[in-house]
Amino acid sequence: MSKIKTERIGSQIVKELSEIILDKAKSEILKTVTITATDVTSDLGLAKIYYTYLGDYDKNLVQEELNKASSFLRTELAERIDIRHTPELKFIFDKSIEYGTNIERILADINK
Length: 112
Description:
Elements: H1 3-24, E1 33-40, E2 46-53, H2 59-80, E3 88-93, H3 96-111
Parallel strand pairs: 2-3
Antiparallel strand pairs: 1-2
Helix pairs in contact: 1-2
């Protein structure tokens, strides 16, 4: 499958998962999750979903909640996007925001 098509499907997955989590998730922990990006394999078998969250929850607890909800999220996603096979969802914590915050802190320390 072409790279452009997988990127388009990936961006649609980000949009739809964000809406599903916001509208249909019952867990308060899940409602703090923000989907930042996705990486879909060319055969659409796997979608790596990158996320971050707000709040004072433990990373492992948030990861556990997402893993428990993955079958529900995949089912809801299958109803919303028109592809033959809905990819398996693998949730990965997005470290780029923490990394950027750390760089800003270091730069601020240097400027002092």
